[in-house]
Amino acid sequence: MRIVRDVIATLIVAALALLYVDVVGGSSIGPVADARGVAASGLVLGLVACAIAGEAVMVTKAGMWRTIAGVLVPVLVTAGIVTVITNSTTVLAVFMALLVVLWAGSTLHHLVIPADGSMRRAGATHS
């Protein structure tokens, strides 16, 4: 299931990156015409991604990445809401940067940490 969530997250980030480049580049080829639309799309798609992930997005275990994500997610949502209100491409850039950092960190975290959550160490396993 983790690979499915990572693929969905990758598709969402790629779609938002294309919309971002389209809006910042000045062309109106895509379905979204301004920064407000890109941020609103990101917030809605993020909500959909959280609904798909279910309990996997709950921060119930301690860990460095979970702590970092727990700080970055509220900042990301705030940047998205501020972009929707102000239509600022500068705040949208912050929103997109946070989105990419969270996506990359989560994907790398899933590649490094085993699915069962245990950390295996080389060497003796006795106390």
Number of helices: 4
Helix and strand pattern: HHHH
Q: Give the C-alpha Rg.
A: 17 Å
Largest sheet: none
| Unreliable residue stretches | none
The backbone outline, from C-alpha atoms, is globular
What is the count of distinct domains?
A: 1
Report strand %: under 5%
Distance between the termini: 34 Å
Beta strands, count:
0
As an assembly, this protein is single chain
| Structural class designation | mainly alpha
Helix share bin? over 70%
Q: What is the averaged pLDDT score?
A: 82
Question: What can you see in these coordinates?
Answer:
- 71% of the residues lie in helices and 0% in strands.
- With 127 residues, it is mostly helical.
- The longest helix has 24 residues, at 2-25.
- The model has no long low-confidence stretch (mean pLDDT 82).
Write the layout of secondary structure elements.
Blueprint: H1 2-25, H2 35-53, H3 64-86, H4 89-112
